[in-house]
Each structure stands twice: as structure tokens, then as C-alpha cells.
Amino acid sequence: MRSDEIRRLFLEFFEKKGHKILPSASLIPEDPQLLFTIAGMVPFKPIFWGKVDPVYTRIATCQKCVRTTDIENVGKTPRHHTFFEMLGNFSFGDYFKEEAIEWAWEFVTQVLKIPEERLWISVYKDDNEAYEIWRKIGVPSSKILKLGKEDNFWGPAGPTGPCGPDTEIFYDTQRDVPTSDGKEPTPANTEGRFVEIWNLVFTEFYQDENGNLLPLKRKNIDTGAGLERVAAMMQGVYNNFDTDLFAPIIEGICNILNVEYKKDEKIDVSIRVIADHIRALVFLISDGVFPSNEGRGYVLRRILRRAARHGKLLGANAPFLHKLVDFVVNKMGNVYPEIVEKKEFTKEIILGEEKRFLQNLNKGLELVEKVVRENNGKISGEMAFKLYDTYGFPLDILRDLAEENGYVLDEQGFNEYMEKQRLLAKSAAGDVEFTKRTGYEDLKLKSEFVGYEKYEEYSKVLAIKVSEFVNEAQDADCEIVLERTPFYAEKGGQVSDTGIIKGENGEFLVEYVYSPTEGIIVHRGKLKGRLSVGEKVYAKIDIEKRKATARNHTATHLLHAALRKVLGTHVRQAGSLVESEKLRFDFTHFNALSVDEIEQVEKMVNNVILEAIDVIVEEKDYDEAVKEGAMALFEEKYGDKVRVVKVGNFSEELCGGTHVKNTGEIGLFKIVSEGSVSAGIRRVEAITGLNSLMYLQRLENNWLKVRKVLEVNDEEVFRRIENMKEEIKKLNSEIKSLKQKMVDIDSIYKNKKVINNVEYIVEKFEGLEVDVLRDLADRLVDKGVDLVVLFDKVGEKVILIVKKKKSNQLLHAGNIAKELSKVLGGGGGGRPDFAQAGGKDFGKVQEAIKKLEEILREC
């Protein structure tokens, strides 16, 4: 049974059981504790927490997931993956243990038709209810294992959150594996024979930050069946990589890299790593994750470099990963249309990043050569880690180099540095899967945002946090949670509101507003006087800042639409910043915008502004909004009800931000900069309203200053500048000619010296152009000198020119320049006949000359 059929049968089965079938959520989760969607239940955590009421009480999904905690095991084991699909059925206060167990058994034994004798069950040791349900449906007690909390208690998916006992279904592969106790094989005493195919979690508790288990207001069901494992079971293979999910990708790898699968285990590991990682790369980039040095982008970069490294081990000397995107899209695009839509863009991102990595790899190879030369063939643990951390240089390749060349590699030292780095990273941000906690996750509070309609509101203080939560604060930097607030919390690229919150005995200056967890809005700032929990307060935002921000936010939507119309529909938002002074918009595009394209976009946006079109904001069902053509952006998180912001027939997007009521309020829209952010990502910055007026006034003032300096009118400015350029060019040429004439070449030639039958000239200068130095070196060599070395002082630094006669095969100008520049505290090199280098210390020129004499004596 192929994977597509398994996925379809699972969803159809639970649809018949009354479940709403939902598409997979993004790999970028709403949960602030998580970097990625790491389990099928992640999109529903607010429901499990009891913070949000469910629209549907029964749901089934096939959720795309990413985990990287065990990334080093990927490729080495049959079932470790970074990207995987999780089949799951969920109940929110509806059915519980009995139905969940019975339906799981029915699906496995009657739909998938797995023989009952091949199945085993585990339950939490104190969960007698689950045990009796399994017995009732006919599973013999000898095949039901009671295990401890480490085996059969799930969650939370993060430091805190919903959790509960679970029960698991195991499939017996019947592999001949020894048991740990010499008894009959079971999932508890055998490693590798039994495969867990389904986990049913009875989510009835909430674990707080102290590890306490608190009952949830409703009992829930959360199940997960890994599609890769189920496919392996149904296709009669032991290794997930041997299923149809990976077969076409592996075939593509073998064809592109000209390698064979299942001939050499070392090669197989690299093939499996690449096959796994390319799936993760395709899905992460399609969901809006881009390479960077922090957070999700860093994890993506790490996955890509690991895949590229294994390609290098298989002999790849050029980028190849982008060629594998087609194989992933062909296999999975019918289920996940987003990867089809982003296919070409994904290729560009991967290609650009892989090129940079290979460049770093080459730099690393040069550095390795230098290190082993300076350290008698040794690579210390510190240097190995530096190569890994700074250049992304893999230990595997270092190890291969060491074996091939007889270098000594301190792997133990490297591992010690890696462990220090891991501990530092963990202390700073928890596990790589998790972001930092805020302390608000466990509060049973809810804030209501009223800022779409109001700029001010009377409210009540629900919580105050200084360094910890307190009932009262006085004259302090602190955070405040209100029952109702007009303050917009930063999200979706829009900055937060600022303003004041006034109480009877205190005034709080709001500097920043954010939402650390679903349903809670936190105001951060400075308190003058006293405020207490439960106190009635008056909250008012900075209205002018809000209006300016709204102008820029609506303009961002118009900009997005205009870019798609001018450049093409491949343009998608890749990040944004909306504040009162300006807007910044990152988007997917592969080339710099031309002057003509920028003018087209500006004209299109300003035409919509001049038409004074009403901005319509409506609440709709998510599915309905998307069907009508509203764009969903990866930065925004959506529930079943969404806000649709529509500007006539020009723009329609889902957005939780604040906007103007009519495009005429925006004023003049002006693009002030356009540039590259990374491969395939461009950035535009623009201004609106009074900021555009001030920008034009600054330009006009500068123009008037230019006219005044040049003493010409508007029409004469450019002609005058062109004339000045020609004058400067002519003068520079005359200066160069004069400097060349000032150099007495005959006098310099008379100072030639001889060492070891090499006729050479060394001279020091100050303030000569490089062109003059090069010309002088050429003329001296033409007069018959074997070697010319010229030093020129530029401030405290030095420029070094080395030129040699081509017929002299004993000398190498590039190598001589490299050695002399080391003495001068710099670097450089060049061809055998000519080289240029630099140094930081002109005072060491005499020492460099002595080094030159040593080199000549040894040649």
C-alpha cells in the first residue's frame, strides 16, 4: 500500500467517524515556545490549554512536522527524520479513551488489515482504564505492557502545556534480535524489532513550569501515527528510507551524484541524510523559513549545510541540492500545493545558500592548509571547532583530510568545544526546538483587544510583573496586563502602539506591547507612582503614531499587490516592518528592480491612493476568505475566523493589523531604497504621508545647496558636474604623469643588488599611486632586473608590489609577497610574475627587506 493511499484512507476513516478534516498547518507555529511544528497537536495547543474554544470538537489531520533534536542520528537509523508527516485524530471534550482505542484498533486491523498477532500494546502503569479497554476489544493481557512515565506519559510539547498518559501500538517486524533479559521478545526488552506505529495520548492535564499536573477543563484526545513508519509496515520494509516516500528522491540523488544505493553503508548514510534533509528544506522554505544566523533560519542553514556536506563526501564539487527539489515536489506536491507554488523560488534559495557554503568550504580548506603548516601537521580541537563554527566546515571532511595527509586531528578537543557550545545554546534558549519562556504561559488570564475601534479605554489591571509577578508596583520598570486594551501588540510586522495608562495614584508610560502567549497582551514600560492588580485605569494610545503606522500598513498591502502586478505572481511577502516613520517590505524576487520598475510600482500605488478607495475590513471563515482570493501571509497566524483587508479590486489580504479607512488618507507614497537581503529576497523601504513631504523637502534643500555651490541654475547643474568630472580626470592624469617623472628610474636602477646570482631592487616610497608603482616595477624589469620589490607608505599602512622577470624560474612573486606581507602584519599574493600585498605597519619594512634577503639566499 503506497503512502498516498494510507494518508487518504486514514482521513476518510475518521471523516466517517464525524471528524472535520483540516489541511496541515504551517511549520511555523503560533506557539511562542516552539520554533517549529514538532507534532500534530501543536496547532491545537490553545484549545488543549483551554484558552480557545474549539470550532470543531472532532478533527483529523495529516500534519507536516520538523524536529532536529536528533539530527545527528538521521541517516544512521531506520526511523530518524527531520521532516515527517504525522497522521492524527483529535477530540476536544468529545469522545475519550474508549472510542480512541477502539477506532485505532479498527483502522489498523480492519482497514490496514495488519494481523492482530503482529501487534503489541503499551499503557501507562497507573492507567487501568486504558488497560481494561484493550482487554475488552480482545487484546490478550500477555501483549499489553504496563510501563512507566518515561515510556507512556506524553508531553508537554515544550516546557509547559497539555499532557497526559498515553497508550501505544507496536508492530512486530519479527526480526531476529536478542532480548535484554533472555525471555520472549517484547517491545520492553528488545531493541529494533518492535516499531511504535501509533501513540494515543489522553490529554487531561496541564503541566506548569514547576512540573505540577493540573486538570484541564475538558478531557481531550491527541493521537499521532507517523506516516513514514506506517508506510514501512505496509510495504514490508524495515527502513523508512526504503518506502515510496523516499525511493524517487534517492533515485534522483544516485543519478545526479553518480552513486549506487545499498552497495556501501557509508555511502548509504550520506544518501539517506540528503534524502531526508532535502524534504525538510523544501517544506521549510515553502512555509517562509529562510537561511539566517538565528532561530529558524539558523536551523534551516544547519540542515542545508549538513546535506551539502554529505554531497561533498559523495564527490559533489558543485551545488546539486537545488536539482533535487523537483523530486520532492513530484512526490508530494499533490498533497501540499504550497511546495508546487514555491518550487522555483525554493530552488533559488537553496542554490544561493549552497554556493555560499561551498565558498566557505574552500576558504576552510585554505585555512586548514595554513594551520597544519604552522602547527607541524596538527589541527587542534579549538581550531577544528572554529572551522566548523565560523566556516561551517564539517568534522567529517577534516577527518578525511587528516587520514589522507597524515595530519593529527584532536577530535576529543573538538567535541569538548561542541559540548560547551551546546550547553551555552541550551541555557540561552532551551532546546533548539524551543524559544525562551516568558512566565505568562501559565496565567489563567485573557486580554481583550479593542483597538480596532477605539484609541482609549477604561479597563482593569489583571497582572503586574517586575522581575516576578506582584500585586502592586511603585516607580518601576515593569509589565502590565489589562482586561481590555486599545494598545496593538507587535505582530505581523507591525510595531506596537505606545501611550499611557493612568491609575488613581500612578501613570504608566507604555513603551512596547507584545503577546507572549495566546490571549494575553502585555504592556511594557515605566511606572511613575503606584499601580495595583484589580485597579481601574484609563488607557490611551499615541494617536498620531497609530495613524502614521496605519498609513504605512495599508501602503504595504498596496505595495505587495503592485509588485505582483509589475514583477509577476512569484512575488510573495518574505518579511515586513511597519512603523510610523516608514515601511519595510521583503519579498521573493531574483533580480534588482530597475528604475523603470520602481517608477511603475510607485505610480500604481499612488493611483490607488488618489482614487480614495474605501478600505473594507471584514471577518470571514478562513476557507471562505482564501477561496475568494485573499492572500495568506506566513507571518500571520490564523484561526477559523480571519480579518480580510480589501482595497477595491486591487488588494485583498488576511491581516490582523490596523489600517486607514480610505486610501486617500495615505498621502504620497515614495520608495526610498531597494536592495538585496539574501539570495532570492529583495527589500523595499518606502514612506507615506508627512514623511514623504519631509523627504522631498530634504531633497529640495540639498538640491538648492548644490546649485549654490556650483553657482548655476537647474538646467546647468548636470552639465557643470560633467565638466567637473572631466577636469578632475584630466588633473589626476597630470598628477600621475608628474609623479612618474619625479621618480628617477636611472638612479633607482643604479641601486640594484645581487644575492645568489639574483639581481634585485628594493625601494621605499610615500604617497605614490599603485598604478605608478606598477609602472615603475614594469620599467625596471624591462631594464633587465630579475626582481623588483617596492614599498609605499599610506598613512601608517604599507602597499607592497613584487615584480619578477618571467624568464627567472627560481622566483615566485606571489609567494614572496605572501611572506613579506606577513612580516608587515597583512596579507596578499598573486601570480608567479607579479603580486600585490598590503600591511598594517610601515615601521616593519626594514624587517621585511631582511626577510627578502633570506628568501633570496635560500632560492
Describe the protein:
The relative contact order is 0.05. It is globular, with a radius of gyration of 34 Å. The protein has 859 residues and is α+β, with helices and mostly antiparallel strands. The chain has six domains: 3-237, BirA Bifunctional Protein, domain 2 (2-Layer Sandwich), CATH 3.30.930.10; 247-429; 448-541, Elongation Factor Tu (Ef-tu), domain 3; 546-696, Threonyl-tRNA Synthetase, Chain A, domain 2, CATH 3.30.980; 712-742; 743-858, Roll (Diaminopimelate Epimerase, Chain A, domain 1), CATH 3.10.310. It has 24 helices and 33 strands. The strands form seven sheets. Strands 1, 2, 3, 4, 5, 6, 7, 8 and 9 form a nine-stranded mixed beta sheet that branches. A six-stranded antiparallel β-barrel has the order 13-15-19-18-17-20. Helix 3 (97-111) runs parallel beside helix 4 (128-136), helix 7 crosses helix 8 (265-286) and helix 13 crosses helix 15.
